[in-house]
Structures are given as C-alpha cells and as structure tokens.
Amino acid sequence: MKVDLYNQNGEVSGSTVLPKEIFEVKLNVDLVHQIVVSQMANKRQISAHTKNRGEVSGGGKKPWRQKGTGRARHGSIRSPLWRGGGITFGPRKDKVYEREIPKKMRRKALFMVLSQKAKEKNLIVLDKLEMAVPATKEMAKSLSKLPCKSQSLLIALPKYDKNAFLSARNIKKTGIFEARNLNILDLMTYKYLLLPKEAIKVIKETFLK
Questions:
Q1: From the CB of residue 188, how many other CB atoms can be counted at a distance below 10 Å?
Q2: What is the value of pTM for the model shown?
Q3: Are residues 105 and 77 in the same domain?
Q4: Which residues 6+ apart lie within 8 Å of 179 measured at CB?
Q5: Are residues 91 and 53 in the same domain?
Q6: Statement to judge: residues 87 and 111 lie in one domain
Q7: pLDDT digits (tens, 9 = 90+) for 45-57
Q8: In terms of domains, do 55 and 38 share one?
C-alpha cells in the first residue's frame, strides 16, 4: 500500500510503501474485540477488599451460653450477623481478572487495527519528527498542519526522544509512545496514528519475529 509522506510543515514531500503483511491484513472484528477485552481486564486494578469471618478480630469465645438466656444462639461475634463481623460475598482483591491471550493472536489483531487505520486514511506518515528543544507550542503548530487537525492523535516514535515526549505530552487529545510499545487499546483510543518513517521499520522488526 502506497501512502503520502508528509514533512513537519504539513506538506506532502513524497510517498512511501507500507509493508502489506502489517498494513493489509483483513479485519476480524471478533478477534479484535477479544484482545481489547483482555487488555482492559489485564489493566484492571482492584482496591475494594472486605474481610470474611475468619479475618476480623475478636470473637475468641462464645458470646453467651447456648441455652437458658432467652436470646438467639450465637457462636462468635465474628459472624456476618453481627455488627463488626465478617462480610458475606463482599468484594475481594484476590479475584483474578487477567486473561492470557497467545502472542500470535495479539500481534495479528494489532496488524488488523493498523490496516484499518491505513484503509480509513487515519494513518499519517512523516519523513521525520524532530524537536531541537522541548516546545509544546511548536509541536502543536506542526500537528495542526497535518490532516489530523484537532482530532485525537497517537504518535509512535521509532525510539525515545525526550524533546518530542516533553513537547507532546501536554497537548490535548494527543498521546505519544515508542513504536515498539504499540497495542490495540491505545490505537483504538485515538482516531489518528502518526508514524515517522523510521517507526515503520521498528514495528516490522518488533512484531514480525
């Protein structure tokens, strides 16, 4: 697939050919949905945790004798029937939500989403993305000249660039990552994907092993 190649001034400076094994993969909606759900589950953090009757303190002896008091029989104040006792069926942080998905499935789904970005013209390829110094205003100015305009945008750099990261991190609706860390959840969070030309090579070397 051939796409336009832009420079930082928003001008078309040429064209480049995208590797078809990454950017021309047929979409399987069910597989993509399965990977998205698994990634969201894996990111889930559990903070709510209640104690059951075996974990609350106190209740070492029977509150009162079994018979003769006229009151209901009880064996321990740790019972869920008592105030301050254990909780029945409460939230527990030992529950595991993580889902394990084979690497081949994850990568194929990633290629499907990248292919859709290219097919729907939501993929922007730059000849290079360089910032001499951290400058959010300059970065925002450069991005505004590209087809993404004010839409949400994910920038995938070929390698860590401190100046670029500092320049882009405070721009509204803009995310920035290294290309080797691309995943479906991030790709689907943002409408457009911006790739410097070198990042395509990194994606190929990282995910086509």
A1: 16
A2: 0.80
A3: no
A4: 156, 157, 158, 195, 199, 202, 203, 206
A5: yes
A6: no
A7: 888 999 999 999 9
A8: no
